[in-house]
Specification:
The complex is a heterodimer of chains A (115) and B (112). Chain A has 115 residues and is an all-beta fold. Chain A contains no helices and nine strands. In chain A, the strands form two sheets. Chain A has a five-stranded mixed sheet with strand order 1-9-8-3-4, with no helix packed on it. A four-stranded antiparallel sheet of chain A has the order 2-7-6-5, with no helix packed on it. The N and C termini of chain A lie far apart (39 Å). Chain B is mostly beta strands and 112 residues long. The N and C termini of chain B lie far apart (36 Å). The chains are: A mainly beta (115), B mainly beta (112).
Chain lengths: 115, 112
Amino acid sequence: LAKTTQPISMDSYEGQEVNITCSHNNIATNDYITWYQQFPSQGPRFIIQGYKTKVTNEVASLFIPADRKSSTLSLPRVSLSDTAVYYCLVGDNLISSGSARQLTFGSGTQLTVLP
Amino acid sequence: DTEVTQTPKHLVMGMTNKKSLKCEQHMGHRAMYWYKQKAKKPPELMFVYSYEKLSINESVPSRFSPECPNSSLLNLHLHALQPEDSALYLCASSHVGAGELFFGEGSRLTVL
């Protein structure tokens, strides 16, 4: 089981780049890495998913080293509204396998953006 | 339409009541999920439906009974709940085999 480990909390200031790292030492060959953002009393929101190297979209970048045992979510120029909990999930996206690994949320990282 | 709609937003029930939570999506997703989230904790997976069939049950007590009447609807029937079942219940949907889950705003359940 690809258990994930993230820092419990991080603080940053507005306008800075924030990097949140997730460790997943037991990641399997077919596993993807997915990140979600969650605000209080709301459902999680998908941020980004990747398999290897670098993935970028309009809100974030995901860096995955060659050994894939960790990944880093990068949020450019954060604002106060980016204060939220960020979750890293690892799994193969295959529901038919009967596995819930990619659907299992770890403890998450509470990011607080300060003015 | 990229929304997952959950009703009711808030529900208070006694331990002997029977109630249901409802979830609806019109994105053509054929996978739907129920999660439970306690305060300051991550969401915990309860059930997964794939093509309207129950695919994953994470050893959830029988007082929670899921139902997927069609590809757009997902229900969670509640009966004889305990106070410790009070939580935010989240519904999500996705394309089967896709990694992006779309979550609803949740139903806040309080069991007295």
